[in-house]
Amino acid sequence: MPEPLIHFIIPFFLLSMSGLSVKKATLFSTLAILPDLDVLFHIHRSFSHSIIFILLISALAAIVIKKFYKEKFHDSIVATLVILSHPFMDAFTGYTPVFWPLFNKSILIIAELTTNINDVLDLNLNLDIYFKPVIFYKTTNIDTPIFSSTGVAISLVLLAGLALKYYSIKHYSFKPPSFRP
Ligand SMILES: [Zn+2]
Prior knowledge:
two-stranded antiparallel sheet
């Protein structure tokens, strides 16, 4: 699975680039880690990774927010999209029950292109979707990284991109794109 650091840093980068404050981007991006809290119950990739489950909980939260905190309604939409990014990314790295309970199979998407060092034109495209029955079981021995070297490298590059953005705003009058007329 992508590690928690990757789940956090990608929405953090996108939200920051979209113009959200660091504080708000941090708050939203922390939500992207929530589905992996199932490890606290010794279950790996549980129903917390189901798009259906996430949409259901988010819809209930959005209804309450719209009623009592109307000005925060758009935040609830952004929060939902951020959380949904988690099972989406997980499905590319391991079996994930994205459509449980409507579809009782975990999904693994493979999208790879490899080449041969002796013949770079010897390309091998591997696009496939694998299924296996959803079984939520407790396990007591999962070694799972909170961050890895690859994750740290990607995070540092993305943070450098954000630093460049703030530098450009300060020194080149760079204005982030605005979607409002
Ligand atoms: Zn996960």
